[in-house]
Amino acid sequence: MAMLGKRRPKRAPSGVSGLQGRKSEDRHAPAAPREREPDLLEIQGLAHDGRGVARSPEGKTVFVEGALPGERVRVAVHRTRQRFDEAHVRELETPSAERVVPPCPHFGRCGGCDLQHLALPAQRRHKQAVLMELLGRQGISLDDAPELLVGAGEDYRRRARLGVKVDADGRVHLGFRARHTHRLVDIASCTVLVPSLEALLAPLHQQLSALEAPRQVGHLELLESDRGVVLIVRQLRDHAGDTHRWQAFAEAQGVHLARWLGREAPAFEWLTPVPALECRVPGPSGEIPLRVEPGDFLQANAEVNRLMVGAALAWLSPLVGQARLLDLFAGIGNFSLPLAAAGARVTTAEGSPAMVERLAGNAKANGLDIEAYQADLNDPAAVRELLTATRPEVVVLDPPREGAEAVSQALKATPVPRLLYVSCDPATLSRDAAHLLQGGYRIVRAAVADMFVHTSHLESMLMFEYTGSTRDPQGAPSDG
C-alpha cells in the first residue's frame, strides 16, 4: 500500500525471493532522510484570536497556537496556506514572563478557553489593544486606552452547552468541542463555570451512562438563573423510560428540567413544574428583576453584565432624565429597564417577537412605562421609520455579532445627540464606527468588558456624540 499510485523502481533480479537477500541489499541502500528540525521562531505579538505571530526564516507569517509575545519556540507547521502558515509549539525554549500555569486540566484540548496560559492582566491589555487596532484600521484613534470592566477570573459562566456522544464501544462522552473541530473532549471539571453548574458535570456523566437510549440525546444546556438551575435535554426521539430517569435526576439534583424533543422541528416542553426564572440587573435605586425563558439571550457573565449596565447608567446619567431614548436590539430589557428607571422615556425594538413580549412583561412587572416593538433592524427602511417616529435624543445599540450597519447608516441621515453602542464583535463595531464618524459623530468614551475571561472574545462599549463635523476616517474633518 505504501507504493500505491507510484511506479516501482526497476531492479536487477537477485536470484532469490521473499525475505532472502534483503540484508545485503540494505547495506548499499541510501540512508533515510532525517526528519526536519522544527523551526525556531521568535514570537512578535498576539493575533486577535490569541495565537502568537511570528515570521518564518523565509519571511512568511506564522500563527502559532499556544505561543506568547517575546517567546522563542520551536514549532511544527500543521497547515500551510498561500499567505501564512499555522503551527503549534513543539518546544518552548524561552518562556514569556507573563506565561502562567493554566488553571484548567483540560487546557490545550478543550476549545473553550484559549488564553489560560497568559496572565490575566496581560489578557486584558491584549483585549484593549485589539479594540484599538481594529479601530485604527478604520483610521479611528482613541485619546486614551479603553476603560476596563472586569470581574472574577474563574467561576463566572452561568450558561453552557455540552455535547453528548456515544462512541463505537458504547461509551458515553460529555463535554465541549476541541478547537476548530467537531471532536468532543470529555470534561470532568470546568474552572469557568459557576459552581452550581460545575457540580452537575460528574452526576451528568453518570446519568447519561445509565440511560437506555443515550444515543437519542443530542446535547445538554445548563443555565443558572437567580431562581435556580435549569437543565435542558435535546432529545431526538422520545423514550418513556429515559424521560422518567431524567425527571428523577432533576428531583435528586434540585434543578428545573425541560427538553427539546424531535429531530427536524423540535418542540420545547417542561418536564418539571414551569419555573419563574429571572436574572437581576442594577438600577438607579436598587436591583431590577428581569423574567427570562430558555432561548432568550442572556449574557454569560452576570457580574460583568452588571458592570456594563452600571457603566451605561453612569455614562448617560446627565442625559437620561426625561430624555427620549430608543433602545435597539433590546432583548429582554437588559439596558432598557435600568434606563427607564433612571427617568428616560424609553422605546425599544427587537427582532424576536418572543423577547419583545418578555420585555413588555418585564416593564409592566416593574411598573415602568416602555413601548416595545418588533422590527427588522437590518432593514434600513424600518430603522429610518423608527428614528422618525420616536425622534430620540439618545440611542442605545446592543446588536449580535453581525453588528448594526443598517442602523449606523440610518443614524448618518438622521443623527441623534448621543449614541451608546455595545458590541460583542470589535470588527463589526469598528466598521460601524467608521460610518458614524463619516456622519458627524465622535467617540467620547470607550470600554472593554472582559465578558469571557481566558478567551480571546471581548465585549466593547463606545459612546458617541453628534458634532455635525463629518470626518472621513482616513482623512481630515470637514464641516457637514
UniProtKB/TrEMBL annotation:
Its Gene Ontology molecular function terms? 4 iron, 4 sulfur cluster binding; iron ion binding; RNA binding; rRNA (uridine-C5-)-methyltransferase activity
Q: What is its EC number?
A: 2.1.1.190
Does the entry feature the keyword ATP-binding, yes or no?
A: no
Q: Name one Pfam family in it.
A: TRAM
For the ligand (S-adenosyl-L-methionine), the binding residues are Q299, F329, N334, E350, D376, D398
Q: Which residues form the TRAM domain?
A: 32-91
Write down the top EC class of this protein.
transferase
Q: Which UniProt keywords apply?
A: 4Fe-4S, Iron, Iron-sulfur, Metal-binding, Methyltransferase, rRNA processing, S-adenosyl-L-methionine, Transferase
Does Transferase count among this protein's keywords? yes
Q: Which GO terms describe its biological process?
A: rRNA base methylation
Q: Which residues bind [4Fe-4S] cluster?
A: C104, C110, C113, C190
Tell me what reaction this enzyme catalyses.
Answer: uridine(1939) in 23S rRNA + S-adenosyl-L-methionine = 5-methyluridine(1939) in 23S rRNA + S-adenosyl-L-homocysteine + H(+)
Q: Where is the composition biased (Basic and acidic residues)?
A: 22-39
Q: Where is the composition biased (Basic residues)?
A: 1-11
Q: What is the protein's known function?
A: Catalyzes the formation of 5-methyl-uridine at position 1939 (m5U1939) in 23S rRNA.
Looking up PANTHER family in the UniProt record yields: 23S RRNA (URACIL(1939)-C(5))-METHYLTRANSFERASE RLMD (PTHR11061:SF49), RNA M5U METHYLTRANSFERASE (PTHR11061)
Name of this chain's protein: 23S rRNA (uracil(1939)-C(5))-methyltransferase RlmD
